[in-house]
């Protein structure tokens, strides 16, 4: 009726069931995180620069903003200076081109003048310095009358260096009373290479009417004559 009974185990010490253990991988992960955090804290405290406070961070950001604004301003100034430099270089090139053109024009004019001088009749008296042509114009000024002159002087070709001398003009004509008269103009310095155009103005006495001028080229004031010619005043 009761059948066969099963044996019943009996624990006289009443041991409890052991608690559930954490997985090994979770334990390793936690230990690794702890070690990494500790190592990072140690490195930061021992070797890395100290962390900035909020005030220091704000000051650093402000300094960076100021430096960046200065950089932008300097970049703008550099662009403006570069623009001015480019304009100056362009102006210099233009001036150089104009100067070269002017030199070419001057050389051409010199050649033309040399051709004109060569075509003029020679000085009948000859001499070391020839007086090839002259122009005299009487005019009224605030201080009376004056005689403007242009005198073309030439030397023989092949002269090694300019000849320094003095130009003496003796003006002859009629005085205010109608009597023949003459006067010597102040000596003017001249330097003659191949050819030289001497220009100037001579003050005349009141009422004086010039009709001819004796042109003399001297080696110095009051010195030896190098050339002479009598020219009419037209």
Question: Which key phrases capture this entry?
Answer:
234 residues, alpha+beta, Immunoglobulin-like, 2 domains, 5-stranded antiparallel β-sheet, 3-stranded antiparallel β-sheet, 8 strands
Please characterize this protein's 3D structure.
- This protein is of the alpha+beta class and 234 residues long.
- The protein has two domains: 24-119; 129-232, Immunoglobulin-like.
- Helix content is 38%, strand content 32%.
- The chain has two helices and eight strands; from the N terminus they run ααββββββββ.
- The protein has helices at 24-46, 54-119, and strands at 129-141, 144-155, 163-174, 180-184, 188-192, 195-204, 209-218, 225-232.
- Strands 3, 4, 5, 7 and 8 form a five-stranded antiparallel beta sheet that branches.
Beta-strand content bin = 25-35%
Number of strand elements: 8
User: What is the CATH domain class of the largest domain?
Assistant: Mainly Beta
Could you give a short account of the major beta sheet? Answer: 5 strands, antiparallel
Domain count, please report it: 2
N-to-C series of helices and strands:
HHEEEEEEEE
Looking at the structure, the CATH topology of the largest domain is: Immunoglobulin-like
CATH homologous superfamily of the largest domain, by name? Immunoglobulins
Low-confidence stretches: none
Q: What general outline do the C-alpha atoms trace?
A: rod-shaped
Helix content: 25-40%
Task: Indicate the radius of gyration in whole angstroms.
Answer: 56 Å
User: Which structural class matches the secondary elements?
Assistant: alpha+beta
Distance N to C terminus:
180 Å
pLDDT averaged over residues = 83
- CATH architecture type of the largest domain: Sandwich
């Amino acid at each position: 009726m009761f059948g066969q009974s099963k044996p019943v185990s009996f624990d006289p010490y009443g041991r409890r069931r052991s608690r559930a253990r954490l997985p090994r991988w979770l334990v390793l992960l936690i230990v690794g995180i702890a070690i990494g955090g500790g190592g990072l804290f140690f490195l930061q405290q021992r070797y890395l620069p100290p962390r900035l406070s909020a005030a220091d961070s704000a000051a650093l950001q402000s300094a960076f903003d100021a430096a960046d604004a200065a950089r932008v301003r300097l970049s703008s100034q550099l662009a403006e200076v570069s623009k001015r430099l480019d304009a100056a270089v362009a102006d210099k090139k233009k001036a150089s081109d104009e100067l070269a053109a002017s030199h070419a024009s001057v050389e051409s004019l010199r050649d033309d003048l040399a051709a004109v001088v060569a075509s003029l009749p020679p000085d009948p008296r000859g001499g070391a310095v020839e007086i090839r042509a002259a122009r005299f114009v009487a005019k009224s000024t605030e201080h009376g009358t004056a005689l403007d002159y242009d005198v073309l002087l030439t030397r023989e070709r092949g002269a090694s260096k300019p000849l320094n001398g003095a130009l003496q003009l003796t003006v002859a004509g009629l005085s205010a009373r109608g009597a023949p008269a003459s006067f010597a103009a102040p000596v003017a310095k001249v330097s003659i290479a191949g050819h030289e155009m001497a220009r100037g103005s001579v003050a005349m006495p009141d009422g004086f009417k010039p009709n001819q001028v004796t042109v003399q080229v001297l080696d110095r004031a009051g010195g030896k004559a190098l050339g002479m010619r009598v020219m009419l005043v037209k």
